[in-house]
Amino acid sequence: MTVKTLAIASDHGGVELKSAIIELLKDRGVEVSDLGTNGSASVDYPDFAQAVAKSIIDGSAEAGILVCGSGIGMSIAANRFPQVRAALVHDRLSAELCRQHNNANVLCLGARLLGEATALDCVDAFISTEFEGGRHEGRIAKMS
Ligand code: RB5
């Protein structure tokens, strides 16, 4: 998909990476909604995963990005929402595959595990890679 509208959020572990991602997205012409957090104070990642999931569900964003220390908590929390297919990725290939095979609509990143360049490469792949459809359609339908 070529993403046009995207909601992004992080916990305190992902604030700096979130800023770098927003800059990249704006450079690419994506309309970004920053749902926080915006400081170093400790917050609970499920609250931010829920905010991004709500944006997907109400249609205000086509896609989402969630950043926490490991990306694990955000991916667990986001996938509690049936309309969300959140993928925790670690490199460009996994970011491409989550779009091609899984039609992921939320990308999860671990700011404490990935370097910034790798994380931005994942974002670039996520916003520009199309779902392949075909044999993958039925598999996704089984999860909804
Ligand atoms: C916060 O310390 C950390 O637990 C969180 O960012 C995330 O890694 C949870 O999965």
UniProtKB/TrEMBL annotation:
Protein name, UniProt field: Ribose 5-phosphate isomerase B
Family: Belongs to the LacAB/RpiB family.
Entry's Gene Ontology molecular function annotations: ribose-5-phosphate isomerase activity
InterPro entries: RpiB, RpiB_LacA_LacB, RpiB_LacA_LacB_sf
Residues annotated as the enzyme's active site: 68, 101
Residues involved in D-ribulose 5-phosphate binding: 11-12, 69-73, 102, 112, 135, 139
Taxonomic path: Bacteria, Pseudomonadati, Pseudomonadota, Alphaproteobacteria, Rhodospirillales
Keywords from the named record: Isomerase
Top EC class for this record: isomerase
Isomerase is among the record's keywords: yes
GO biological process terms on file: carbohydrate metabolic process
One Pfam match: LacAB_rpiB
Documented EC number(s): 5.3.1.6
Coiled coil region boundaries: none
Species per Swiss-Prot/TrEMBL record: Thalassospira povalilytica
Gene3D superfamilies: Sugar-phosphate isomerase, RpiB/LacA/LacB (3.40.1400.10)
